[in-house]
Amino acid sequence: MTSRSDDIRLGADIGGTFTDIALDVRGTMFSTKVLTNYAAPEQAILDGIDVVIRDAGISAAEIGIIIHGTTLATNALIERRGARTALVTTEGFRDVIEMRTENRFEQYDLNLQLPTPLIPREDRFTVKGRIGAEGQELQPLDEAALEEIADRIAAGNFGSVAIGFIHAYANPGHERRARDILARKLSIPISISAEVSPQMREFERFNTVCANAYVRPQMADYLARLQTRLKDMGADCPVFMIHSGGGLISVETASEFPVRLVESGPAGGAIFAADIARRFGLEKVVSYDMGGTTAKICLIEDYAPRTARTFEVARTYRFSKGSGMPISIPVIEMIEIGAGGGSIAWVDAMGRIQTGPESAGSEPGPACYGRGGKRPAITDADLVLGKLDPDNFAGGAIRLDTAASEQAILRDVGERLSLNAMATAFGICEVVDENMANAARVHAVENGKNISDNLMIAFGGAAPLHAARLCEKLGIDQCIVPRGAGVGSAIGFLKAPFGYEALASKLTRLSRFNAAEVNALLADLKASAEGFVRSGASGKIVCEITAFMRYAGQGWEIPVPLADEPFGDDAVVKLKDLFEKNYQRFFGRAIEGLDGLEIEIVTWSVKATDVRPAVARHELTMGKKTGKPATTREVFDPVSGRPRSYGIVERDTLCAGDRVAGPAVIVERETSTVVTTSFDAVIQSDGAILLIRKGSRA
């Protein structure tokens, strides 16, 4: 009987179009891409595992650990395909998730429509009982009313329950008691906001617990099914999930808190880029992840992606901030737009080419896939422009139909604009590239950064096709396309630490700071976070402590990193000094000269992670000139505005230090890197491709 090995690890990333598999066998990587199966998502993982274990010459039983990320929770929220969910909330707060914060995300739209709440009004139930802002009980919980609510839910064909009471973050007693009462009569999962998102601001907290309950039955069923089928194929090893904050958690935790899996796939990509940045000692990086459905852009500083405590899913109004569904959980901060290889191209009422956010996905896929898709996608435009080899797409697993792409592009876009297929395809790609460039600029500006100061790291199946052109638009001189770029997120899963962030809101003014109480709170948070990490890690664990602070009266707070040590008698002085220094870093200056202006702490955070081994460092090399490529192909050149002969080079034939002069296309199994006329490409010591703008100062 073959036993599993701890140094054989597998990452599996389910995307909207492709499911990516990366298998690390003692330092050697094997990977593949399989079209996502919407009806049975786990089937694509099993199919991909069959491919990589065959290539590696091992059995499924030898796999030591499987790390999984998925967009299933996100898609269920966006497409409203979750369970019928009941919300039980405090009397008087039934309509919080519908009223939202009353902010107008489009100030001048007189016909503005707010997004439809996840749970309709008739499925929201209220009960008397009140907890105060400091955690004191103001009114006892009406337990008799809860018994009646349980009967109504039991008779209503509900699949899940969310409980969200006012100020439950300060005292979860009422929520826990309500769960106990409902559980006596119900056999469906019950989520409480004090465990899902114990933070201030009831709209965000209520919406988050509703989202968790909404996707919980579906995700629990999927994860149980996945584990069963993995064992059936012989992969009887631990399975862990990557969460939105970039750490690993157990399947059991993920089944209970599936809202933590929203954005789990993109989080893996950011970790992948951060690992590359650390390898080359790059302190300012913008990661660019373009797959089949979306493009994700993330800023990475000091080898770590930026993080946040809340984000929005499914923005409904021109991607405007505030028009989506707020999810209040720790997350890697990035901007995501509907610009993937499967994004549909169309012409709007003003005769302008538009792309996305609708995607052809894997079913039916772009027109060139020959799987029933009739509408033109970005992949169709890339094929018509010559960026892709129709006979060698996905390692030859999918034969692309160029004629079908041309027909779709002309029918839906070209004929309406009186353009030929080539010009139309170029227009489509220019629009999607400009959309991505604008998203990157906005994301950088919102974070007070200049995008051109960064080196780009491009990965995902479609990103290397567009990266050089995107760099031209953004004024970025260097871009790294790592080895395994086509399955970058899946490889990122293998780099992720076991980690968990525990949060608790407790409004505390420095004038009333009680060190003993805060030390006890932080000890509880640390125990909780470390408990999650210990489910998969046995080595050393480090904790990062953060206080989210503000001046009293302000609406939002800033993160203030703290030392992992108990507070002493000098805590107030230290906290004030740290807050003012961080406030000055964020806003240029601290507020001075106002007598009595209080500083307060809103939320405490403890992030526990296991210690990862240090990565081997590499120096960027500028390389040397290579010979002329043996093969060429006509590829549309955006600089000259016409097709031009591009050299075609197999990535596996290149060695460290080799330099490929643009224009060229470097091809590999999961993607192709287009080296435009403005760039050269140099192979690095770890096999990565470095795109260097000609004439730039390296």
UniProtKB/TrEMBL annotation:
GO terms for biological process: glutathione metabolic process. Transmembrane segments: none annotated. Residues 205-497 form the Hydantoinase A/oxoprolinase domain. GO terms for cellular component: cytosol. One of its GO terms (molecular function) is 5-oxoprolinase (ATP-hydrolyzing) activity. Residues 517-683 form the Acetophenone carboxylase-like C-terminal domain. Residues 9-184 form the Hydantoinase/oxoprolinase N-terminal domain. It holds the Pfam family Hydant_A_C. PANTHER family: 5-OXOPROLINASE RELATED (PTHR11365), HYPOTHETICAL 5-OXOPROLINASE (EUROFUNG)-RELATED (PTHR11365:SF23). This is 5-oxoprolinase. It comes from Mesorhizobium plurifarium. The lineage of its organism: Bacteria, Pseudomonadati, Pseudomonadota, Alphaproteobacteria, Hyphomicrobiales.
